[in-house]
Here is the input.
Amino acid sequence: MTRRLPSWTTGSGARLALGLGGSTAFLVLFLRNADFHQVGRAFTEVSAWWIGPALVVYFAGIAARAWRWHWLLLHIERIPWWRLFPIVAIGFGVNNVLPLRAGELVRAHVLYQRHGISRLSGLSSIFMTRVYDGLMLTCFLVIGVIASLVGLWGMSDAGDELTGAMSFLVFGIIGAFLVFGWIARRPDDAKRVIGKALARIPGQANREWTWLEPVITGMSAQANRRQVTGAVTASLIAWALEALMYWMVGQAFNLGVPFPVYLLVAAAANLLITAPSTAGGVGPFEWATKATLLIWLPTLGMVGEQGAEATAVAFAAILHGLVIIPVSLVGLLFLWYFQVSARRSDLQAET
Here is the structure.
């Protein structure tokens, strides 16, 4: 039987236009000061010996994310991480092809088809993985900014933008964990409060908010200390491996910048692409990586100020290519292999 990708992986014209528009705007910012002759030379000087091990480390981080999802779903069903790994890869693959985080919807649908878990509970648990991502990236910002303030390894001040983002995110993440912890521990109160708030929307006063139950169920791991500890541990491993992968790519370029700089690159680039306007974060990721690296590369790296721009451009392009292309191929291969089929009405059935 011929296998083919489901129609919803191709997206719509509006999604494509939105993704292309967002990517183009950031790519213009990314490339506007680049000397393409020097960028080409920077590409030729990359040590390929680091690339293979960097990819192994990155996929180990994907496996750690699957392990984290295992913890966040444990109160619903015990699913081993290796059975969740293909679904996580599918989510990454579709996110890297389509804008607006379409991969999260597909990931929840595949979880439903293969394990019978409500799509809304699945989406809610996936949302919680993003909250844990925010926690780790905030920790990266804190470590990197503190390292810059104390001058670790000769680092200069990180600047007001990163310091301000750190302060904002620290309070935001603490608030998010308090809110979601309250929802998980007091689901009946949460449903009543949220239902009353939604009833204030014009025309919605008498509506039954039946979707709240599975959504809160997906967040209920926050009420279990063991699950929270497991999810935090898995998140720490996942993001430590991703930062290590960034460092390894930096070694391939012989950048000569200290490890906290890579923590700040990871935080800045991945926090910026949380705005789901571009497929795979193409454009915003490269621009944020280059802008963050250029704070220190001219003074700490192995290149002069003129070559720093070109090296940062080449580093950002190769890094993002390694982050999105291999996992996208793996994820879409799993999507084809599982023969996932869905209509738009199926994906929206519970909302």
Summary: The radius of gyration is 21 Å. The first helix runs from residue 13 to 31.
